[in-house]
């Protein structure tokens, strides 16, 4: 990563990328509420009484991880671009 890219790719940059968040309802045995995680970062998790709370919680955890990784100069995985185009190669 170039010095220029490091200046551009700050916390705001990563928070606005289209990462996929997976949300699931927890059973009563699991404590109820909702659980959320990032598809690309399954170790970053959040929970809440509602889907919105779980998403807000996991985003807060993601922001913390990104801040630490940026401070340590680590490379942060970006989401793959989704495309509806398919190409056939011969």
Automatic annotation (TrEMBL):
Top-level taxonomic group: Bacteria
InterPro entries listed in its UniProt record: TTHA1013/TTHA0281-like (IPR035069)
Protein name in UniProt: Toxin-antitoxin system, antitoxin component, HicB family
Organism: Candidatus Campylobacter infans
């Amino acid at each position: 990563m170039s010095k220029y890219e490091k200046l551009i790719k700050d916390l705001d940059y990563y928070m606005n990328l289209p990462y996929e968040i997976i949300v699931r309802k927890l059973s009563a045995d699991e404590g109820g509420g909702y659980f959320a995680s990032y598809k690309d970062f399954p170790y970053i998790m959040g929970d809440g009484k509602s889907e919105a709370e779980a998403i807000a919680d996991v985003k807060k955890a993601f922001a913390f991880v990104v801040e630490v990784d940026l401070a340590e100069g680590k490379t942060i995985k970006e989401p793959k671009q989704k495309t509806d185009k398919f190409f056939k190669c011969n």
